[in-house]
Amino acid sequence: MELVKAGIVGASGYSGLELIRLLLGHPEVEIETIVSPSNAGFKLNEVFPHLTNIQNCEFDALDVNDLASKVDVVFFATPAGISSQSIPSLIEMGIPCIDLSGDFRLKGNGLYEEWYNHSSPPAQVLEQAVYGLSEFYPEEIANANLIANPGCYPTASLLGILPIIQQDWVDPSSLIIDGKSGLSGAGRKTSLAAHFSEVNENVSAYKLGKHQHIPEIEQLLSMQIEKEIQVTFATHLIPLTRGMMCSMYMNLLTEKTTNQVIELYQSFYENHPFIRIMPEGKWPTPKGVAGSNYCDIGFSVDDRTNRITVISVIDNLMKGAAGQAVQNMNLRFGFAETEGLMLSPVFP
Ligand SMILES: NC(=O)C1=CN([C@@H]2O[C@H](COP(=O)(O)OP(=O)(O)OC[C@H]3O[C@@H](n4cnc5c(N)ncnc54)[C@H](OP(=O)(O)O)[C@@H]3O)[C@@H](O)[C@H]2O)C=CC1
Ligand SMILES: CC(=O)N[C@@H](CCC(=O)OP(=O)(O)O)C(=O)O
């Protein structure tokens, strides 16, 4: 059978590199072109020596017509405001696109402009975009030509809270999400806030009340329970290369034990190989999923305060970006959902 030809725009960034790593090991796909404007003409291993003798193609400049003539699917791993300039033409030429940026995630009027400070993509293209939370929308993803891959924090949070919120066991308005991310979440371009001396042996809160994932999480929660929800969401930078943890707190509406919650989640995610539910008294760590597409979720019900804590961890570059994008490509092209993704976590 012919291999699916993939193009990666933003291949010199962290999530683009992770797409290269995953697609090199995918039995149904070949990488046809890698795009990075600032590295066009250079060989991949000249820019990234760790890929020497593994993949030696050259970076291309971005040319939408050239892309469309070569590939069966395009991944965009580019900063906000870039994919929305090329995806409308690619979609019109019939090329499925999987966008790792936030350009096509927010459906509400003016929301994208407000939170991302970029112009909204054309409405007729935006309405074709399907939110790529793989475990929740597999049929929609399978039939979509434009998949808006979720943000890393929304992936960890939504996988951790949707089952219990849908069940009406908790008061959604009491939800507080305390998120922590490793540094690769901020991409390869550096800044003072990402300086080793400032991040190492430190923890810093950032974008409080202003994080662009707030409307994404609220949009999904409100849609799932058909009621407007607002959340408190606090983000922190921690001294890890990869990894993300969301600790989430909610008031219980009925008396439940930790074990009853665990049973609910085990049954909810029974047929979802990338979601692992921790037993009572064990809580997940980012190291436990590093390099893999797993999302590990643990729980604790405090019967003194009648609150529940849900802890959800992912590798931000895998389930939070490239891993989920490949999972979505698998769904879209009819491959097994796990194809190319059954990688064990790198531990220790
Ligand atoms: N890092 C993460 O954990 C996650 C990232 N995301 C999202 O995925 C996207 C990529 O993130 P990340 O990999 O961290 O970013 P990086 O900053 O590491 O990489 C960005 C890439 O985009 C390319 N690029 C920049 N401007 C343009 C342009 N005008 N045209 C074409 N290519 C361009 C860059 O190429 P060049 O080097 O040539 O400039 C580079 O390859 C972002 O939207 C991010 O928010 C989503 C979930 C998690
Ligand atoms: C550590 C860190 O800075 N992380 C970034 C994640 C950015 C991201 O993934 O942005 P989009 O999903 O909107 O594309 C942040 O919190 O803004």
UniProtKB/TrEMBL annotation:
Compartments, record wording: Cytoplasm
Biological-process GO terms, alphabetical: L-arginine biosynthetic process
Source taxon at top rank: Bacteria
Alphabetized CDD domains for the sequence: AGPR_1_C, AGPR_1_N
NCBIfam families xrefs: argC
Function recorded in the entry: Catalyzes the NADPH-dependent reduction of N-acetyl-5-glutamyl phosphate to yield N-acetyl-L-glutamate 5-semialdehyde.
Name of the protein this chain belongs to: N-acetyl-gamma-glutamyl-phosphate reductase
